[in-house]
Amino acid sequence: xxxxxxxxxxxxxxxxxxxAAALAADYATKELALAAFEPGESMRVVGELLRFTLVFNxxxxxxxxxxxxxxxxxIAVGVVVYILFMARKLGSASWTVALGLILGGALGNLxxxxxxxxxxxxxxxxxxxxxxxxxxxxxxxxxxCVGGAFAVLLAFRGINLDGTRESDNRAEEAPADExxxxxxxxxxxxxxxxxxxxPQTAADPKEGTGRGEGxxxxxxxxxPDGTDRAGTRRDEGGRSA
Length: 241
Fold this sequence. Notes:
The chain is mainly alpha-helical.
């Protein structure tokens, strides 16, 4: 089977694999950062282009929106539920990878908010990657951004979740619209024919007249009052009157 029913389980497996890989990479690197650095400690990696700096973020991605962790916990749960709901429509491998990255990133930060200090469901997210002129972030944030950018690109190119393209859908709708217009035109012609009584046939003047009273046989030469063309009246026996 190569239809949508056959593709859906494979796409869901791909979605799960991508999300699991993103979640595992995020969790492992956070644990390494916690083991290697003290809060606020920084280490230069590539000059001033890349530093490892351990911070705890109670806000949104990239250390934004501090102080309301419960709000971002609810948002993250909503994102996860929405992606899992849309997974049944997936037919595009590209969309599957994009949503898998977003799902894995959302789960990575969701785990921090749910289980890390200072309190359950109010935990701080571990951020540890720093580049110039940019907030400190983590692997989960990167996955969310890459997946989101990929999704925007797919939408811009007109690729749907099921793998179809908007141009293909419009091409399929055009013949259907033409067929509908033709059917309406035929439907409009039928009442016009019915209103005119259908095609009329002209009477043939050569056809004989009726055989009712007063009818004259073509070869009799008799007038309707019983006289012949010479004006002689004949009786029933054929004798001249």
